[in-house]
Design brief:
single chain; binds zinc ion; Arginase, Chain A
């Protein structure tokens, strides 16, 4: 398969208006999509709107109470607060198309070898509650769907967002047909981490060298026989990020992505962009664009 045959999915066709000054950078998703087209990295014909995820798929990873109470807006303020985003019809719809977009990306990656969602990586959502800007857990939903449908036998999750994926590990952390590798800032949220299959917590201000050697070592020690990879390519490890505690450079992030794509080689890989909160947000967008650029040069070989 050539790069031009790959399909990509997006979620920003459903906009969620946030109050002025809100910390969540809702704008980055549209900026990323526009920049990828402007720079000719993705052709418009390769881009598809994320379809709404089916409730039956959400229910593979989430409790019926959580899914239906969220839909009917009967969750209490206390239950909603950890998400950090105000409930609205738009937020609900956005969450459905974002998770649906990742599910579609996993199907597409299985077929073609590679695909990505220009959003997602909602790894803080648990079975019965959302948390940390994550309403539903896209990786958990897609993992359990592919395993239940017997489309794959073993899935490797590589989570390189600066925040540990406590939702991924609370839902999938004890399974033996899934392996989660999380490389994150030890001092970053979540402060109570739920164990993944392999957790590498890096100290504050860890730079490219320490990060890349830790990643290389971690990847090299995986003996789990995966047949599919989900990659959470968060760029909040960037030095300029306002939430991350690490000091990675653009070049370091590029080498990180290369290492992952090289490691994946002929294994189908589905990617979600994950977090990024630099100020100005253009730096985060640039880092996300670089991930796609790196993927393009790797998959065009
Ligand atoms: Zn993050």
């Amino acid at each position: 398969m050539k790069w031009n045959d790959f399909s990509f999915f997006y979620a920003d066709h459903v906009e969620v208006p946030l109050p002025e000054g809100h910390r969540f950078p809702m704008i980055k998703y549209r900026l990323l999509r526009e920049k990828l087209m402007e720079d000719g990295i993705i052709h418009p014909s390769q881009l598809f709107k994320g379809p709404e995820v089916l409730d039956e798929d959400l229910l593979r990873a989430h409790t019926p109470h959580y899914v239906y109470a969220l839909k009917n807006h009967t969750l209490s303020h206390k239950e909603l607060r950890p998400i950090g985003l105000e409930w609205s019809e738009d937020l609900l719809k956005r969450s459905y198309v974002s998770v649906g977009g990742f599910v579609a990306a996993t199907d597409s990656a299985l077929k073609n070898g590679f695909s990505a969602l220009l959003a997602g990586g909602t790894h803080h959502a648990h079975a019965d509650r959302g948390e940390g800007y994550c309403v539903f857990n896209d990786f958990a939903v897609a993992t359990l769907r592919l395993l239940d449908q017997k489309k794959v036998k073993k899935i490797l999750i590589i989570d390189l967002d600066v925040h540990q994926g406590n939702g991924n590990s609370s839902i999938l952390g004890k399974r033996d047909d899934v392996f989660i590798l999380s490389l994150h800032g030890e001092k970053n949220y979540p402060f109570r981490k739920i164990p993944s299959h392999m957790d590498v917590g890096l100290p504050e201000h860890a730079g490219d060298e320490q990060y890349l050697s830790s990643l290389e070592k971690a990847l090299g020690s995986i003996i789990f026989p995966f047949d599919m990879i989900f990659y959470q390519a968060g760029v909040d490890g960037l030095m300029e990020d306002t939430l991350g505690t690490l000091d990675l450079s653009f070049e370091g992030l590029k080498q990180r992505d290369e290492m992952v794509f090289q490691f994946a080689k002929n294994t189908p890989l589905a990617m979600a962009i994950g977090g990024g909160y630099a100020h100005p947000i253009d730096m985060t967008v640039k880092a996300h664009v670089n991930t796609f650029k790196t993927a393009k040069s790797f998959y065009s070989l």
